[in-house]
Amino acid sequence: PGGHYRPPHCFARYKSAILVAYRNQEKYLRHLLYYIHPFLQRQQLSYTIYLIQQVGTDSFNRAKLLNVGVREAMKDEEWDCLVLHDVDMVPENDYNLYICDEYYPKHMASAMDKFQYTLPYKSFFGGVSALTPEHYMKMNGFPNTYWGDGGENDDIATRIHLAGMKIVRTSPHLGRYRVMDYNEETEMPEPWRRPPSRHNTRKTWKADGMNTLQFRLLSRTKHPLYTKITVD
């Protein structure tokens, strides 16, 4: 229960927490869960899938939800790897291993179908990425101040470099993802907005992240295919 799995006949070499920030995307979620459980089990990982759900009417804040997910997941287990996963993306290649690089944050979605299986730009870090808890804390997690869609990825890439690390990428023939598209039921993506005084990542990264994370935990429930963490 709770979306947790351990291989029954062997000792798993890696323990990965799969963290999915979520709001009102039921179709995507069903699709992802249908594919991802057998995919991860074929890799013989020990893993748990965490769904971090935002309620209320504020703009979606993916980066902050992932911070919440990391904090809550680390209460359950000493995870080797934190895999930050968009709900609308499905891996195409079984050899794309959901484990971390020992030294640096790993960008896994290096070839997405909606970008013709290439990177949209050089510093792109969106979609699916894998960081050890040490990497995550070293860069002070993700920013809490991005409301709306997408702007946080550039901030995260900058943080990685400011924290003295670099991005490694899964090779494109392995890091292939299909991006699901059910336009009729998703919210319109909002234009990106962020408090203007915090735009300079170089100045703000140490004061906006895991060390300033505040949230109200509304519930934490175990469902058959995932553990759901609801915050406002």
Characterise the protein shown here.
- With 232 residues, the chain is α/β, with parallel strands linked by helices.
- The chain has one domain: Spore Coat Polysaccharide Biosynthesis Protein SpsA, Chain A.
- The protein has 5 helices and 12 strands.
- Strands 1, 2, 3, 4, 6, 8, 9, 11 and 12 form a 9-stranded mixed β-sheet that branches. It has a 3-stranded mixed β-sheet with strand order 5-10-7.
- The model is unreliable at 194-198 (pLDDT under 50).
- Residues 2-101 form the Galactosyltransferase N-terminal domain.
List keywords for this structure.
232 residues, alpha/beta, Spore Coat Polysaccharide Biosynthesis Protein SpsA, Chain A, nine-stranded mixed sheet, three-stranded mixed sheet, 5 helices, manganese
Head-to-tail CA distance between termini: 24 Å
The Rg value, from CA coordinates, equals 17 Å
Could you give the order of the helices and strands? Answer: EEHEHEEEEEHHEEHEE
Low-pLDDT runs:
194-198
- What is the typical, i.e. mean, pLDDT? 90
**CATH homology group:** Spore Coat Polysaccharide Biosynthesis Protein SpsA, Chain A
The helix content is: 10-25%
Count of DSSP strands: 12
Domain count, please report it: 1
Strand content: 15-25%
CATH architecture term: Alpha-Beta Complex
Shape, per Cα inertia axes? globular
Oligomeric status: single chain
